[in-house]
Amino acid sequence: MRRAVMLLLALCWALPASAQVHGVAVQVSQGQDIPTAAQIRQLTNPGDFVRDLAPWSRTDPDCDLTSGGTIAIPPEMQTLYNRVAQSGRKNFVTLGFNNVACGQVSALGWLDFPNTPQLRAEFAAYAVQLVQTVPQLAGISIWNEMNGAFNGGYTGAGSIPAKLKAYCQLANTVITEVRKVNPTIPIAIGASVGWNIQGWFTNMFNKYGCMGKNDPAIWLDVHPFISGIYGPTTGWAKWPKQIAYIRSKGINNPLIATEWGGTAAVKWMKQVPDGNYPQEFQNRIILPDPSWMGLMWFEALADTAIPKVGLIDSSGALTPAGQDYVGTFVP
Fold first, then answer.
1. CA of 57: how far to CAs of 122, 150, 258, 274, in Å?
2. Does a cis peptide bond (omega within 30 degrees of 0) precede residue 177?
3. Domain 2-298 grouped into CATH 3.20.20.80
4. Contact in structure between 189 and 219 (CB atoms under 8 Å)
5. Rounded to an integer, what distance in angstroms lies between the CA atom of residue 9 and that of residue 6?
6. Model-level pTM?
7. Cα–Cα distance for residue pair 143/108, rounded to 1 Å
8. DSSP letters along 43-92, please?
9. What are the domain boundaries of the chain?
10. Longest dimension (CA), the chain
């Protein structure tokens, strides 16, 4: 009973009473600009999320957290965290990737994975200290797009079982350690991208041992980048079916899109020039399943590496997607 009450309080704290949380993903840790306080307020409502990756290699540069070391948050990331908190919004942090100081071959997410007891312990210590340090933290997510580009080096035919087993071992270690210092903070797992989530999530819980099934404070991390004209082979049709499938397998965890929109939205807007992508997404993807916790648009500001994905362009004006986004989600 006590745990159920704590989880309910956690969800009430994390979410507005009336609707899903919205928000934006930024790439500050990847070298992009830090949104100003005015931009944060322009794109979000009070209590909405601002999400960034907190690189393990940069925040744990000596790989010494399990032996008494202290996390080192880079200045630009600390500025972001403080600005979000001061704006009345909440930080959301994705954990990844690797750490060369711990003996791994690279800091990149597609070459290696923390898959030994020692590496999992250090990664969990990094998660714990972030939870204890980042102001106004709404939640964390473990890894990013593990079933896609950031596969941890698990590639080729037959790699999925080993990948999911290793991922669940890491997720379980992180969840266990974070719960010791904060028993209610939402933790997103799955680190998925794309529409084909039915086997990924059902196997993660039902076959490979991920803890947290049907725990309302364990969220399923998805990246639903949906484009194309409507039809049975597009993501607009596939996503509701995929979600219905995992629900039919007894998996009722809330969903959170830590990235959505992006280039997929730009492509759709070219095909449907008079359409409103955020409203269409809300109607076709969110409303059919009542347990979406949040959506974070990828990304807030203009990105030189990925042109035209931002809600705000390089001149500081709202893009066409930004105008629709603000009109739909930021009254």
1. 11, 15, 21, 44
2. no
3. yes
4. yes
5. 5
6. 0.93
7. 11
8. H--TT-EEEEEEEHHHHSTTS-GGGT------HHHHHHHHHHHHTT-EEE
9. 2-298
10. 58
Chunked mean pLDDT (size 10), the chain, 331 residues: 44 43 96 97 98 98 98 97 98 98 96 97 98 98 97 93 97 98 98 95 96 97 96 94 96 97 95 95 93 95 89 96 96 82
Indicate the helix (H) or strand (E) that contains 222.
strand 218-222
CB 223 within 8 A of CB 257: yes
Record the tokens describing residue 267, joined without a space.
Answer: 């492509």
- Of the candidates 82, 89, 147, the residue with the CA atom closest to the CA atom of residue 113: 147
Half-sphere exposure of 264 (CA within 13 A, CB side): 22
Residues 80/35, Cβ–Cβ less than 8 Å: yes
**How large is the C-alpha radius of gyration of the chain?**
19
| Cβ neighbour number for residue 276 with a 10 Å cutoff | 18
Tell me which H or E stretch contains 122: helix 117-133
Query: Residue holding tokens 């630009």?
Result: 76
Strands 292-298 and 255-261: parallel
